[in-house]
Amino acid sequence: MFTGIVEELGTVAELTMLPEAARLTVRGQTVMADITPGDSVAVNGVCLTVVDVADGVFSAEVMKETLDRSSLGGLGPGDPVNLERAATLATRLGGHLVQGHVDGVGTVLSRRAGEHWELVTISLPPDLARYVVEKGSIAVDGISLTVTAVTELDFSISLIPTTLRLTTLGQRATGDLVNLEVDVIAKYVEKLVNRA
Question: What share of the chain is helix, strand, coil (3-state, %, to 5)?
Answer without folding.
Answer: 20, 45, 35
